[in-house]
Target: WRKY transcription factor
Amino acid sequence: MEKKEMVVKTEDAVGSSSIPCYNSNFYPFSNAFDFSEVEKSSLGFMELLGVQDYSPLLELPQLSTVSVPHHSTVKVPSDNGKECSEVLNHQPATPNSSSISSASSDAVNDEQKMTLDQVEEDDDEEEEEGQQKTKKQLKPKKTNRKRQREPRFAFMTKSEVDHLEDGYRWRKYGQKAVKNSPFPRSYYRCTSVSCNVKKRVERSFTDPSVVVTTYEGQHTHPSPVMPRSGVSAGYATNFASVFPQAGNYLSQYQQQQHHQQLIFSTLSSLGFPCNDSSSPKNAGFTQERRLCNPGTNAFLRDHGLLQDVVPSHMLKEE
DNA sequence: CGGATTTGACCCGCGC
DNA sequence: GCGCGGGTCAAATCCG
Model:
């Protein structure tokens, strides 16, 4: 596609001061790497995701990683997707790197000053508007659907199953073939009325054992599916409680701190020089990790989260 | 029978 | 303006 243009756009978004507060912390790679070079080398994971949005991290409501007994999961920046993923895939981080996570939203990016609540309100209004128009013009679909995106968060999960149980109920509303990927992308919407959360699920074609789940929006209701006993219960509990509503309870500072810990731990465990390599919060993740790629596993063992982010071929190259 | 899924058509944004 | 790709709609179909 328009890779180079996307690179430019990314650098604008990432490297400029348009991203408030966390610029240097949350987009550390932008200054350190030549995205255009990276782009040439291979397809980024987020490119596979199609996650191309970026939004200020001020709006980041979720910063937690999720661990699953049966799926090793890591939160991935759905940021400006491509470039960030490229960084993740190909480049070591600088010592100051602190984030592989971000929110994403084309629209939100345009309205960086909006709060999440404001975004949601606007979405509600526009949704009604759109629905009305849709109903009016059934066949000649002229729904005037403005693309108003909520922040997105992507999780990469090693799993045999595409659609992971996360404590919420989803209705599939679409499926599309993904360019450059043999695996289709599925679109889900939260079944709860007045809840506009969506998620996309697709499998990485570079590592088919990895399922990428991208969430968009914020649940306006508690998880309807109470966790059962057993392994999946922990996942549901953890996920439903932490994501996507964690942002309601965590201060930005806490989020950043937590996130930085995650990243530091991850990077440092991969051999990247990080100041803070001790992250107790990560212990659970590494312990619960289920690693699917033997070769990768041997290399990574119980290291940090990046092994889920970094395609196996990348790791082998290292 | 009602809810969920499938799937082709359509819309939108973007790059050329 | 056109084409492409992503995202969504909604009728048809499936399934419990």
Q: What stands out?
A: Chain A has 14 helices and six strands.
